[in-house]
Structures are given as C-alpha cells and as structure tokens.
Amino acid sequence: DAEITQSPRHKITETGRQVTLACHQTWNHNNMFWYRQDLGHGLRLIHYSYGVQDTNKGEVSDGYSVSRSNTEDLPLTLESAASSQTSVYFCASSGSTGELFFGEGSRLTVL
Amino acid sequence: GQQLNQSPQSMFIQEGEDVSMNCTSSSIFNTWLWYKQDPGEGPVLLIALYKAGELTSNGRLTAQFGITRKDSFLNISASIPSDVGIYFCAGRSVGSGNTGKLIFGQGTTLQVKP
Prior knowledge:
heterodimer, A: mainly beta, globular, B: mainly beta, five-stranded antiparallel sheet, 11 strands
C-alpha cells in the first residue's frame, strides 16, 4: 500500500544544531507539505512544494528550509535549532483530488 | 490570513450521544475536509466534500458542505469510546484550485465517557 513515512519519530537536540526531518511518500503525489502542531495553534504550514525543484514558504517558514530533488522526498531542515522550534512536525502529501494525507509525525525537542 | 472558526473547542459527552461540530469561514470554499487525530498520530481523513449542499456519510459520521459555501458540519451518531480524539476541519478557498493550500480549523477535542 502507498504510504507516507517520517523519520525520526522522536528527536532531542541542542540549541544551535542543524536538524533534518525526513519525509518519504510512495503515492507519487506532486504536492508535499510540512506543518507544525503546537497546543493552542493547531496545524501551521511551514513549507510546501508542488513538484520537483519547487518550494514555497508557508506562514511560519522562518528558521526552516526544504528542498525537493525528487517526487518522493521533502526533507525539512532546521539550520540552527531554537527552543521555539520544539514541536510536533507533520509531513503531508496530496494528488489531483487535493485530499491531504499525513505522516505519523516527528516530535522534536530542542534543549 | 484566512481563518476557519471551528466550534466547539471541546466536548465531553456520554457514550451513545450524538455529536455535532462545525466550521465557518469568512470566504467561499470549494473543498471541505474533515480529519480525526488520535493521540500520538497524524490526522486521518474522514470525509471529503466538493460541492455546496453535498451530504456525505462514512459509517456513523455524516458531513455536509454548507449551501453558502462558507461552512461545513460534522455529525457523529451514537458515539463510542474510540471516537475520542481531535477533529479538524480544513478547507480550500475558491481560486486556489484542487491542489492549493488547505486552511485548518483549530480542532474540536472530543471525550467520551463510557
């Protein structure tokens, strides 16, 4: 079955370190998204991509970057992790119907 | 930016009761989606709606795309303990096409007392 997987599921890091969260989907979807979820804020869009070599900023993109070198993967990089980036991160993808399918999430703690 | 107002924020009900929640938008949408999130997991799509007035069921769940295209409703009949979780509405505004960004509501936390 097609799926979307995130890794790692849990990560603890220190302030200032670079962190990369991986997202891999096997649906062959063109559209991929990264969200963060925090209490009181719901799901907030960080970055998104509509295809290979395409990336766009979402509403909370500062401190994050993405790259899209193939259809299956959209890694999210925190260049210099900050405590404010402690959160649960969800990757999602969608195809022509526009229905969004989410991964299981990556819980990041920045100490 | 655009926002969705989802209500209620939380519900605590008795097993067997029916549940209703809704989302309203300040602008017209062409798509409404309803998701459920269990603790420690990602949101899972429950129902997708694409036309004003559309009424769609998925087991004990029924959702409707409002006639004004600015709202949507989700009903759960005869609730059971496994209905516990956070329910999110999400919508896509007219003009953003089929693949445009979704706007999410803040979520409704449902607790069911056996």
